[in-house]
Amino acid sequence: MRVILDTNVLLGALISPHGPPDAIYCAWRAARFELVTSAVQLDELRRVSRYPKLKAILPAHRAGTMVNNMQRAIVLDELPPLPEGIDAADPNDAFLLTMALAGETDYLVTGDRRAGLLQRGSIGRTRIVTPAIFCAEVL
């Protein structure tokens, strides 16, 4: 099974060690599924983890360790553009949809309810779900 974890889920795993995002991240580390990521997402994770509001609660070494761990995932170095007729409600999330298609993933797990990903429900064969739903259905 191939899974994409939205950056907000990855950050949630670092910030709160007892919630669904952390359970999902730990399940990947225990080889319960294959994680699909991309150079774009790894750059985003590095950048966002340096935001002042996150630096106050998230030690830089923890984000750095996560990025290093994710190098062992399936890393898509180059992402094609989204196919004609598929749009992202939030242009900043277009790379996640592209990763889902290019990585032939089964799930895209996101906690972002306002960006339109959850409302979409799926793209190709990929179901788009919350961390809680992923934990209930898969873990």
End-to-end CA span: 12 Å
Beta-strand share of residues: 15-25%
Structural class: alpha/beta
Task: Return the string of H and E elements.
Answer: EHHEHHHEHEHEEH
Q: Describe the biggest sheet?
A: 6 strands, mixed
Regions with little confidence, pLDDT below 50 for 5+ residues:
none
Mean pLDDT: 94
Could you characterize what this model shows?
The protein has 139 residues and is α/β, with parallel strands linked by helices. The chain contains 8 helices and 6 strands, in the order βααβαααβαβαββα. It has helices at 7-15, 20-29, 39-48, 52-55, 60-70, 94-102, 117-120, 131-137; strands at 2-5, 34-38, 74-76, 107-109, 122-123, 126-129. The chain has a 6-stranded mixed beta sheet with strand order 3-2-1-4-6-5. Helix 1 packs across helix 2 and helix 2 (20-29) crosses helix 8. The longest helix has 11 residues, at 60-70. The radius of gyration is 14 Å and the shape is globular.
